[in-house]
Amino acid sequence: MTVKKNTKKLPFIDLKQVFAVGISILFVSYLLFYQYTNKYNTNETYNVLQVGEDVKRMASHVQVGLFVNNFPEFSIYKNRFKMNCVVWFRFPVGTESLDTIDNFSFQGGTIKTKSKPIVKIIGDDVVVSYKVTVEFVAYLTFKYFPVGNHKLNIILENRAASQNELVFVGDRDNLRLSDQLLVESWSVQGKNIKTGYMKSELEENNKKMEIGHPSVVFSIKFFNKDFRRFVTLYLPLFLLIFLAVFALFTEIGSTSRGYMVGTSVPSIILYRLIINNLSPVSGELTKVDYVYFLLVFLSLFILFFHAYTLFIFRAIKDAPASVQKKKKLRLRNANKIVLYSVLLGLALFMTYITFF
Predict the structure, then answer these.
(1) Cis before 214 (ω within 30)
(2) pLDDT tens readout for residues 143-176
(3) In whole angstroms, what is the distance from residue 199 CA to residue 218 CA?
(4) Residues near 48 by Cβ (< 8 Å), separated by ≥ 6?
(5) 20 to 30 A from 38, CA-CA: which of 79, 125, 249, 354?
């Protein structure tokens, strides 16, 4: 007498499907790792217009410089900055008045404190320095968030003079940063300075009705070291979408399948609250937005398929055994198609989001 072992084959699961899911997890992990290590460089450039050579010969030349002591407030994602610094000007004796030099300002900023001018005579030049505390907003783009380096542009201008009277000059050595400058999650990668002027058009297409004033852009490039924000935004999202994918391995109509889909899909949708809280103050779509929209679409696709299979499964409950067997086979084949479609869509769109 032989005893037949009671073995039960797990439905839907075969090595091909397991292999496909495993490859998808590894591939998505690689793309996320590439995003973090690549550190996309954002192009937040703010160019000033160059003064013509004939104007340069006639106007007074004033060297301008900036020494940054620290940032009591530094929030790139909220676009709020507070800076303690020293602004200095150097020009030949007798070429400029202190009243004109004193009328500098920061574009997009408010000077909170400003010392009296500290005047020194160095050779034939006058050096005028001011200790300043300024609060300002910057011109930033966040299309690569939560990755990407950022260039902080600090724009100093003098609206009391025209570009025909006064020309700012200087090079990158005129921008200096304190050795004690520390900014959480960011490190200084480079700096630059551009001098020229900015214009205002009083009438459209009428150059005679343009006025300009000398300006200088101090640019500091910051390297993004924020790994925690990256993990906080991406890890839960992909855990939830793969939970929904794993639901496709379970028996159609089973309670566990419903629990897995019913848990993952609403959680992905509600995760938007976390993304909004951690995202920068900006109206543009970012990388994490595109990833979120993709995962919401895929999760809803799985949810609708689950609802459809559940409807069919219950509809054939009282049907003859032969009809049930035929319908279940079709559902299982459809289940495989949905599984591979979700994995393929995830791989293709994540590749597009990563490299384009």
Answers:
(1) no
(2) 899 988 899 999 999 988 888 888 999 999 999 9
(3) 18
(4) 194, 195, 196, 197, 198, 215, 216, 217
(5) 79
Question: Which residues are CB-neighbours of 219 under 8 A, at least 6 positions away?
Answer: 46, 151, 152, 153, 154, 191, 192, 193, 194
One DSSP character per residue, 178-210 reads -TT--BTTEEEEEEEEEEEEEEEESSTT-GGGE
pLDDT band at 255 (very low <50, low <70, confident <90, very high): confident
- Residue 258 contacts residue 250 (beta carbons within 8 Å): no
Q: Would you state the structure tokens that stand for residue 320, as one six-digit string?
A: 């003859």
- Residue among 165, 158, 177 nearest 216 (CA): 158
Handedness of CA 236, 237, 240, 241 (dihedral sign): negative
Domains of the chain: 15-38+228-355 (1.20.58), 53-225 (2.70.170.10)
What's the token pair of residue 142? 């966040």
> Could you say which DSSP state residue 172 is in?
G
Burial class of residue 245 in the structure, from the number of CB atoms within 10 Å of its CB (0-12 exposed, 13-18 middle, 19+ buried): buried
Sequence-distant (6+) residues with CB within 8 A of 277 are: none
Distance set, CA 80 to CA 1, 6, 76 (Å): 82, 67, 7
For residue 226, give every residue at least 6 positions away whose Cβ sits within 8 Å of its Cβ, in sequence order, or none.
146, 185, 186
79 CB-near residues (< 8 Å, 6+ apart): 137, 138, 140, 280, 281, 282
β-bridge partners, 122? 125
Its pTM surpasses 0.70: yes
Contact criterion met (CB below 8 Å) for 198 and 215: yes
72 φ, ψ (degrees, to nearest 5)? -60, -30
Cβ atoms 222, 181 nearer than 8 A: no
Residues paired with residue 65 on neighbouring β-strands, in sequence order: 88
| Cα–Cα distance, 29 to 18 (Å, whole number) | 17
